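Fold it.
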Amino acid sequence: MADTETSLRAGAAGLRPDRRTLVVFTAAVVLLIVFEYWGLPASFKGTALHRSLADALGPGYRDYFDLLPYQYWGVSSLVLRVLVPLAVVALVLRESPREWGWHLPRTWRHIWPYAVFLGVMLPVLFGASALASFQRKYPFYDGAVAGGWHFWGFQLFYGLQFLGVEAFFRGFLLFGLFPRLGWNAIPVTVIPYVMIHFGKPMPETFAAILAGAALGYLALRSRSFLLGAALHWVVAITMDAFVIGREIGWAAMARALF
């Protein structure tokens, strides 16, 4: 028993949080809470701000009233998951964003895995788009099926949301914890990442475990998460296009979108 207590005390002493780890953990938890309660489309839809913004944009934007909450979602992700963490890195921790994944990989050995990842995902997405659970969920914005700005006005801000996801989970959280946890930072960041998938189709939530681990590994390997953000966005657009194609027909989908 004495040996066990001694080893526990020694281990606890060796794992006392350092300033960087405490800053990252604290900022991450606060931002996750703020985003959950004030950053999602539901927290904006039907509010006075929603109506005021629609009025400010003028009559020409009236048809896109229901699109605004999803565009708000993209902007809130940009602010809470990109800009605030960047401010923490630069102003609190006094470090370069480049060391937190903010640069593009330049060597093919860091690029080709993302191309393979996309190639593997395309048939999976096509198959998943035939499932009722995915058809009920995607696209998030029902009006996207109309095409034009209804589709692309959603997708552009949807892309900001994915930039925020990758910048936060595979950037700020992963690179912030890596010096302390090493490669164990990957499973630690996968836990909250999987939790943001609650409410989505169950197969997707389970798949987020593998996707989060794979994207985390690739981010650390290349010291960048930006290609992961691009991949995530392309996958999301493809899923929406596949679901819409099955709903209105492939030719009609192509005309509406392009």
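The CA atoms of residues 199 and 205 lie 8 Å apart.
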